[in-house]
Amino acid sequence: MYHIKCLNKISPAGTRRFGEGYTVDSTEEKPDAILVRSASLHEMEFPKNLLAIARAGAGVNNIPLDRCSENGIAVFNTPGANANAVKEIVVAALLLSSRRIIPAVGWASSLKGKGGEVGKLVEKGKSNFAGPEIAGKTLGVIGLGAVGTLVANAASSLDMAVYGYDPYLSVDAAWGLSRSVHHARSLDEIFEKSDYITIHVPFMPSTKNMINADAIAKMKNGVRLLNFARGGLVDNGAVLEGVKKGKVACYVTDFPDDSLLGVENVIAVPHLGASTPESENNCARMAADELKEYLENGNIHNSVNMPAVSMPRGGFMRICLFHRNVPNTIGKLSGLLANSGINIENMQSKAKKDYAYTIIDVTGSTEKVTPQKLEDIEEVIRARIIPA
Fold first, then answer.
1. Which residue in 29, 67, 198, 331 could disulfide with 226, CB within 3.0 to 4.6 Å?
2. What is the pLDDT of the chain when averaged over all its residues?
3. Model confidence over 144-171: pLDDT tens digits?
4. Half-sphere exposure of 229 (CA within 13 A, CB side)
5. What confidence score (pLDDT) does residue 377 get?
6. How is the chain split into domains, by residue range?
7. Nearest 5°: phi and psi at 311?
């Protein structure tokens, strides 16, 4: 029996996937795994038996990754599960940034009570809210992961010229990218050519404030900027200065800040990028499936702190080991199994930074090997045995 603790309200589309052999609730004191969305785990004390945490979403800033790695806790996220939702709101933002729809609607609402004069006032005042079409304009997409690829393809189908920049473009993402998307070889090329720029990269020290005063200075006059990735990617002070001077025609962000609110030509959306029922269902399903696959088979998919490791079941017992990436650890494990009369049927082992993960399917007696005995090897942080 596995015990799953939900720290936020998780869609039943995900929790129903656990089925028999699982308990799922919000009060479990010693869970085997945790499902979370926005709750912060940085101050949480983890029970020793905790094996995994799954975030129903892409970002994992609310999870202490280093501490999880030190304790052999696998952390999963759900990349791509909310990609379509974010793509759709980015397309909406392209139009909102151009056509001045939001201020126009606000102005129209102010005409309430004018009676028969409303029609004439609308025709007289509508020219104050004219804005350009996006067709024929150039969009620069920074980051061509799940979201960036969908945005680039959608913009191309809307007759925009699209340039994409991603020095870490994966093969899978490249296969999904429209052939009409141009390959930008540098950020400067994006800055210099684009009428609109949208950013879709993870937030980390190397990407903090990547849209700053120097970057804005390289952009076209009247550029429109969109940020539906992470607030820290953009230097708000620099963008506000650009808006004030007219260098930036409009800034649309999904991450409101006090300095951005109420500023003309700044559209602050209250973090609605993935706020669709479809997105929540997709994230919940993916997170649940990742936990089940890890708990039942030891296979790792979409972990942010462990390497991707997957192996079909063989033999009648599976040993899963999370250990430090130091020389001869696998040799010590193999020796221990051999001395216990255990034959290795299949094995997969991969490393990520300072840590490694090994799956071993074995045949032979199970009585001579226990998780406790495996953990006697100094480099092993966590070991567990999963029966066939």
1. 198
2. 94
3. 999 999 999 999 999 999 999 999 998 8
4. 28
5. 80
6. 1-82+276-306, 83-96+132-268, 307-388
7. -150, 135
* Token pair of 243 as six digits: 């808006």
Helices within the chain (DSSP H only)? 12-15, 65-70, 83-99, 101-109, 118-125, 146-157, 171-176, 187-193, 213-217, 236-245, 277-297, 329-339, 371-374
Quick check: 326 pLDDT over 90? no
CA distance readout (Å), 136 to 96, 155, 160, 162, 189: 17, 10, 5, 10, 18
For tokens 């076209």, name the residue.
Answer: 220
Distance CA 299, CA 356 (A): 13
Q: What is the pLDDT of residue 365?
A: 63
Under DSSP, is residue 297 helix (H, G, I), strand (E, B) or coil? helix
Q: Which CATH number fits domain 307-388: 3.30.70.1350, 3.40.50.300, 3.30.70.20, 3.30.70.260?
A: 3.30.70.260
Looking at domain 1-82+276-306, which CATH architecture does it have?
3-Layer(aba) Sandwich (3.40)
pTM (2 decimals)? 0.81
Extract the tokens encoding 320.
């899963």
State in Å, rounded, how far the first CA of the chain is from the last one: 15
Please list the residues that pair with 9 across neighbouring strands: none
